[in-house]
Amino acid sequence: MRNIVVNEKYNNKKIVNFILNEFPNLPYPFLYKALRKKDILVNGKRISSNIFVKKNDNITIYISDDILYGKKFNLDIVYEDKNIIILSKPAGISVLKDSSSIISFSDIVNNYYPNANPCHRLDRNTSGLIIYAKNNEVLEILLAKFKNREIKKYYKAVVYGIPKVNTLQMQAYLFKDNKKSLVYISDTFKKGYKKISTSYKVLGINKSLHLSLLDIEIGTGRTHQIRAHLAHIGLPILGDGKYGINSINKKFKEKHQLLTSYKIKFDFTNDAKILNYLNGKIFEIPVDYKGFNFVV
């Protein structure tokens, strides 16, 4: 627990800006968790939102010093060598900093690996495997391999609905609306839309809950592709606040989409230069959705 006083610089500024200035190594998800749990007090009163503070306000933070100073935020390293790091990203934090975030997953990674850069993205609330390159040469190689689809990504998701078929390979078209931060799916080509490819296999179902567990592979890596494509065919991901069904999410008390990047396969068809040793390698993490009692 810590007590701090707001200085002139942060008068009428948001409280998260002030706290992260005082504790720059505090991971963003821990701060917002503390807000949700009302573990932050302003002048003795508990708050649960990103309010504006005033000069001389007294802020009390019930977060352990180890977390406040970033000492216990251990990266979940799945694989590492001199060229790459494969990490398991938690849900609730963006890979890169954007207008809605102050600290990103990459900021945390760079505390340990200053020159590391992500080779692909995961949505803020999607968890799972992400690859970081340790230098620019490796980054360029991996970006090219992702573009040529020589690195395959697999996901697991819990969806609301029971698919009519156990396996399906889908083709559609996606339009990205940057202003609304939304994407739209069409079964036919339209101006401005880009082709997408998404495949799924049913791993299990729970008829009483009307839920299914899917194994998903994407042939293209468009923004929100999996979430929007599955919602388009009537199988929204549970917990998805943007493309899902809010009433269903509330019923199951899920605030983050149950979508995990659980497997990556290096499948090089062309020379990967200093990364040729990765060809054929598969990296996988366990995904535990056993609480839904899916039946195979």
Tags for this entry?
single chain, 296 residues, alpha+beta, Structural Genomics Hypothetical 15.5 Kd Protein In mrcA-pckA Intergenic Region, Chain A, Alpha-Beta Plaits, Pseudouridine synthase, eleven-stranded mixed β-sheet, four-stranded antiparallel β-sheet, 7 helices, 19% helix
Low-confidence blocks of residues: none
Helices, by number, come to 7
Largest sheet: 11 strands, mixed
CATH T-level topology of the largest domain: Pseudouridine synthase
Fourth-tier CATH superfamily name of the largest domain = Pseudouridine synthase
Instruction: Please give the share of residues in helix.
Output: 10-25%
Question: What proportion strand?
Answer: 25-35%
Order of helices and strands: EEHHEEEEHEEHEEHEEEEEHHEE
Structural class: alpha+beta
Provide the number of structural domains: 3
In total, the number of strands is 17
Average per-residue pLDDT, rounded, comes to 92
Radius of gyration: 21 Å
The CATH class name of the largest domain reads Alpha Beta
The CATH architecture of the largest domain comes to 2-Layer Sandwich
The N- and C-terminal alpha carbons lie at a distance of 47 Å
- Gross morphology is globular
